[in-house]
C-alpha cells in the first residue's frame, strides 16, 4: 500500500510517501516540508500547499492520503490554519479519486511509539528506527508526516476489518428486523381471520 502522509500546517506542511509491505514492514520513499512565508496572503499560502500536494499525488500516485486530524489546540488561529492546510490536501486527493483518512495526533503517537502522549523527540526517534534511516528526518514536520504514513499502514487493516464487521452486523440487524416484521404481519392476518 502506497501512503502519502501529511502533517498539515501553514508555515510548514510535512509531506511523505511510504510503501507498506506485509505485516509491519514499511519503506520510506520520499519526504519533504512545504514552507510558506507568514507575510503571504492566506489564499496564496494555501495555493502553494495545494500545488505541492497535487504534484506529489500526480508524481507518486499514492493509494491513500493520511492527514493529521486537527483535534484540539489552544491557539485557535493555528488550529484554523492547520485545518485549512489539511482541507486543501484532502480536496486535491478527492479530485483524483484517492482515498483520504484522518488520524488524530494521539493515534499516530500510539501507533509509532506505543504511547499516545509521546513527545516529538520520541516520535522522531521511532520513525528513524522503524524506517531504518541513517539520520533522523528534520524538521519535526517531516518526521510527523512519515509517522502519519506509518500509522495508516499499520492501522488500515484493522480499520478495514472493523468496517466489514460493522457492515455485517448492520446487514444481520436488517434481516432480523425484516423477518420480525414478516412474522408480525402473519400473526396479524391470523388474528384477523378468527
UniProtKB/TrEMBL annotation:
Enzyme class: hydrolase
Lineage: Bacteria, Bacillati, Actinomycetota, Actinomycetes, Mycobacteriales
Chain sites annotated for binding Mg(2+) 2: 68
Signal peptide: none
NCBIfam families: ruvC
Annotated active site: 7, 68, 141
PROSITE patterns: RUVC
Keywords: Cytoplasm, DNA damage, DNA recombination, DNA repair, DNA-binding, Endonuclease, Hydrolase, Magnesium, Metal-binding, Nuclease
UniProt cross-references to HAMAP family, sorted A to Z: RuvC (MF_00034)
Role played: The RuvA-RuvB-RuvC complex processes Holliday junction (HJ) DNA during genetic recombination and DNA repair. Endonuclease that resolves HJ intermediates. Cleaves cruciform DNA by making single-stranded nicks across the HJ at symmetrical positions within the homologous arms, yielding a 5'-phosphate and a 3'-hydroxyl group; requires a central core of homology in the junction. The consensus cleavage sequence is 5'-(A/T)TT(C/G)-3'. Cleavage occurs on the 3'-side of the TT dinucleotide at the point of strand exchange.
Quaternary structure and partners: Homodimer which binds Holliday junction (HJ) DNA. The HJ becomes 2-fold symmetrical on binding to RuvC with unstacked arms; it has a different conformation from HJ DNA in complex with RuvA. In the full resolvosome a probable DNA-RuvA(4)-RuvB(12)-RuvC(2) complex forms which resolves the HJ.
Cofactor: Mg(2+)
EC numbers on record: 3.1.21.10
Binding site for Mg(2+) 1: 7, 141
Cofactor note: Binds 2 Mg(2+) ion per subunit.
Protein name: Crossover junction endodeoxyribonuclease RuvC
Catalytic activity: Endonucleolytic cleavage at a junction such as a reciprocal single-stranded crossover between two homologous DNA duplexes (Holliday junction)
InterPro entries linked: RNaseH-like_sf, RNaseH_sf, X-over_junc_endoDNase_Mg_BS, X-over_junc_endoDNase_RuvC
Amino acid at each position: 500500500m502506497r501512503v502519502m502522509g501529511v502533517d498539515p500546517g501553514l508555515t510548514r506542511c510535512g509531506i511523505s510517501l511510504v510503501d507498506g509491505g506485509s505485516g509491519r514492514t514499511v519503506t520510506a520513499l520520499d519526504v519533504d516540508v512545504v514552507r510558506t512565508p507568514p507575510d503571504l496572503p492566506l489564499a496564496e499560502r494555501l495555493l502553494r500547499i495545494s500545488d505541492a500536494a497535487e504534484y506529489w499525488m500526480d508524481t507518486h500516485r499514492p493509494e491513500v492520503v493520511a492527514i493529521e486530524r486537527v483535534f484540539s489546540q489552544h491557539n485557535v488561529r493555528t488550529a484554523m490554519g492547520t485545518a485549512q492546510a489539511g482541507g486543501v490536501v484532502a480536496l486535491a486527493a478527492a479530485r483524483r479519486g484517492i482515498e483520504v483518512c484522518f488520524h488524530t495526533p494521539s493515534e499516530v503517537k500510539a501507533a509509532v511509539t506505543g504511547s499516545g502522549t509521546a513527545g516529538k523527540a520520541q516520535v522522531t526517534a521511532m520513525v528513524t528506527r522503524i524506517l531504518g534511516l541513517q539520520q533522523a528526518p528534520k524538521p519535526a514536520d517531516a518526521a510527523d508526516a512519515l509517522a502519519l504514513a506509518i500509522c495508516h499502514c499499520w492501522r488500515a487493516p484493522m480499520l478495514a476489518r472493523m468496517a466489514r464487521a460493522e457492515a455485517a452486523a448492520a446487514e444481520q440487524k436488517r434481516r432480523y428486523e425484516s423477518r420480525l416484521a414478516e412474522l408480525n404481519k402473519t400473526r396479524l392476518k391470523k388474528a384477523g381471520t378468527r
